[in-house]
Fold Glycosyltransferase involved in cell wall biosynthesis.
Amino acid sequence: MITVSLCLIVKNEEDTIGRCLSSVADLVDEIIIVDTGSDDKTKPIVRKFTRNIFDFKWIDDFAAARNHAFSLAHKDYILWLDADDVLKEEDRKKFAALKQSLDPSVDSVTMNYHLAFDAFGNVTSTLRRNRLVRRERNFKWIGAIHEYLEVWGNIQHSDIAVTHSSIHHDSDRNIRIYEKRLSRGEEFSPRDLYYFANECMDHRMYEGAIEYYEKFLATGKGWVEDNVSSCGKLADCYNQLNNPSKELEASLRSFRYDSPRAEYCCRLGYYFLHREQIQTAIFWYKLATELKPPNVQMGFQNAACSTWLPHLQLCVCYDRAGEHLLAYQHNEKARHFRPTDASVLQNKAYLESVLGITEGGGGNERIE
């Protein structure tokens, strides 16, 4: 059986660190905590789990801090988490099983990262990260902000999920670091251009975000998933700036970088639906229901756009077009994914009234 070192970098994480460590402490053989300047109760909480707490002077560089944490590990493999991450019970069991069975020739194990959930507990945003890496490979973190772990070799994809459960964060931290780097005249990499654009967008600096998304795309060196994502984010920026023609252009631009994605079909459906171009909206929403999710191991995915959302929107479209049976059928497909959704249930009651459907009357009340 392999041994595992857990490595975290922390600062003022008193609200979350105990929850994180409680979810994984009994599954690992060593816990390494690198503290970058906490002045709250983080350290006393951590001491309940480990004495391995090391101070690291913060230099506006997440990769440097993570690489330092990795350098302090001693076990066969290194598992990394953030303080607001947890392993839920099902994933704890899967991790324990993985630890028992993992072939020691595996260099890295990827895990799902569940980032957001809807009101029904369904995952709405997920990606994959290299989570468990063989220590002797000496893999390094790269990037001062939005850092990534550069790995290669024998990579195994697991079905284990790490759940992100944030309570609060310093929303200005990253953009401050980027602005410092710009003020020093530093030349940004394509990755930096992309993530700085994201920070600008998050801070509602839409013109600046557009500028840096365009600079990123102009390099021609971006990862395909970031290229596609940039198009959606450009569309969002133009929407906020009330520029619908540029919004439409940005959504369509995503097709330059990959085959159509359900997310962009839903975007286009929404665009045309709100301009009462119902048949065009129906075309794009139907296409969203027909597309398979992209075979992407590491990029962000939004399951809603290929499951319930286009069916719910098709219900709206067909109702406006007077095709109530089709509206009902698509609402039922949406209900399959969200059986207690108030909007879906309201649509169901309304359409059953229009169609004269009653419970037990002819079998049309359940169309999967």
User: Anything to note?
Assistant: The beta strands are 4-10, 30-35, 53-55, 77-80, 85-86, 108-117, 123-134, 140-142, 148-150, 155-164. The two ends are 45 Å apart (CA to CA). The chain has 14 helices and ten strands.
